[in-house]
Specification:
The protein is mostly helical. The protein has one domain. Helix content is about 85%, strand content about 0%.
Length: about 290
Amino acid sequence: MPASSLLALIDDIATTLDDVAVMTKVATKKTAGVLGDDLALNAQQMTGFNADRELPIVWSVAKGSAINKAILVPLALAISQFVPWLVTPLLMAGGLFLCFEGFEKVFEKFFHKKDDHAEMPVNPVQAHTPEYEKSRVKGAVRTDFILSAEIIVISLGTVATAPVMKQFSVLAGISLIMTIGVYGLVAVIVKLDDVGLYLSGENKSNFTRKLGRGIVAFAPQLMRFLGVAGTIAMFLVGGGILVHGIPFLHHIEQEHGALAGNALAMATGIVSGGLVVFLVTIFKKFRKPKAA
């Protein structure tokens, strides 16, 4: 009798693990697009640091991302159990914030006048102070929080009818996969130039030196691409969240397919971001204290 009970328990555990694995696989497929956006955004935000500080900064953001998910997973489970109506408004707020950040970047790049006296100091040590690094890490972790929230909410949707423990297992698994995947790749991307310099050393073969020089030339182009892709990702992800949360826009997206849906998300993201930037700018002007 004890032996049969043990076998039954083992069989139940195996079945549960198999169910969790299948649901995790489905959730991973559904969040793959967000993974690409997350990678582009974080790689773009990790650029511009001294070479010896790149990996420590990536590690700091990765730890912040893990903390984000440690907060979001139980929070998502609690909300889904007790106040499920709150999921959509929170997600919409996060999407709107991403659109705001994306539009603000574009606006500052093309429309803000540069002050000649406000240029970055020639000495990179002065530019990359601990305070500067902390500010950049804080911004990256904040953006990660919104993207992580979307990943977790999408994943939660795939296991909405499952028991709470299975939901937790899937969300924890997805969180681990996404954190390791994104920041592992970010670490590789930011160190590409160092790898290229090493391969192009004088004591290497001709082919290896050519490969190294090619990597060195490719690395800044990749970073520029990721910078643009990261901004576009903000509009696509943020606009996509808004489209899914607004019934008539969601209906249009479903009727016209994925390509039109992406265009709609992009347009929604740009318009929403522009509107929020406009409102924030007006608010700041009214709040600005009058000179004595």
